[in-house]
Design the sequence.
């Protein structure tokens, strides 16, 4: 994700990357050429100064540790989702930044996709009527690396937090009872981390939510949302060939630019620490519900 953000911000007229921390030498050597200082550790980068804010793109289970160091340095933080791998970690990060009075925003970039913002407006204004169902799909082209899966927290935490946050943001409702299933079909079985999982939930306003996740899809990385209401229905294939790169990198850029305005004193437009905790809490409950169903079989 760090490289994705670098690519997205290369086109920004308002946000400039001035420094990068990368502890692994091979990764440092392969970074794209750009006008930014590169450091082997976070302390060295912070000691050099000259930063207005920091974008955290470390592995998920290092999020909280990194946030603690940045809070002690008084740095505004834009942190990649999910903000740790548990809701407890996300709440601690939110509490730390709140007590320090620091801007803190979470990388739920879907909130900056124009088609999703229009869909949210249609729901909010009642154009679709009362909402029966919100169905969110995220399917990746192929599973991530073994290292990533070891540190990600599993498919509901790694992938599903986007869908859980997206559902809350679109509907303004909170998650109630959640049921889920892990799929037993896998080209490359991975202990404790299914290649596909589905969750269905009750929302606080009576709407039903569906979350469908998969790590292997022949078209590539895709995401879509379907909404069914009493007056109308809508679908947004906001990450879908052939325009997926434009949508993804455009939203990352808009997210960072929005955060920069927030650091400058404007209200936060993106997700906050409480949103991260709510999404992770739903992800944890979905994962627990799936485990309670027992191991999937083929």
Sequence:
């Amino acid at each position: 994700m760090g490289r994705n953000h670098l690519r997205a911000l290369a086109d920004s007229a308002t946000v400039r990357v001035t420094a990068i921390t990368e502890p692994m030498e091979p990764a440092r050597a392969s970074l794209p050429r750009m006008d930014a200082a590169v450091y082997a550790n976070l302390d060295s980068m912070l000691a050099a100064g000259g930063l207005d804010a920091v974008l955290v793109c470390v592995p998920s289970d290092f999020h909280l540790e990194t946030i603690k160091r940045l809070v002690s340095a008084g740095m505004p933080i834009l942190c990649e989702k999910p903000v740790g791998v548990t809701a407890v970690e996300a709440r601690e990060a939110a509490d730390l930044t709140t007590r320090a009075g620091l801007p803190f925003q979470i990388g739920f970039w879907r909130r900056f996709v124009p088609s999703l913002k229009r869909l949210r407006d249609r729901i909010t204004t009642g154009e679709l009527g009362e909402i029966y169902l919100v169905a969110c799909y995220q399917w990746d082209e192929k599973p991530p690396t073994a290292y990533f899966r070891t540190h990600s927290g599993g498919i509901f935490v790694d992938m599903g937090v986007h869908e859980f946050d997206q559902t809350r943001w679109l509907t303004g409702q909170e998650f109630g009872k959640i049921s889920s299933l892990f799929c037993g079909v896998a080209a490359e079985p991975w202990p404790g981390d299914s290649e596909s999982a589905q969750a269905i939930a009750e929302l606080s306003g009576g709407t039903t939510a569906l979350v469908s996740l998969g790590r292997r899809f022949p078209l590539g990385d895709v995401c879509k949302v379907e909404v069914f209401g009493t007056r109308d229905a809508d679908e947004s294939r906001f990450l879908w060939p052939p325009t997926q790169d434009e949508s993804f990198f455009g939203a990352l850029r808009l997210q960072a630019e929005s955060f920069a305005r927030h650091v400058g004193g404007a209200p936060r437009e993106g997700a906050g620490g409480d949103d991260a905790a709510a999404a992770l809490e739903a992800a944890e409950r979905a994962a627990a519900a799936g485990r309670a169903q027992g191991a999937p079989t083929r």
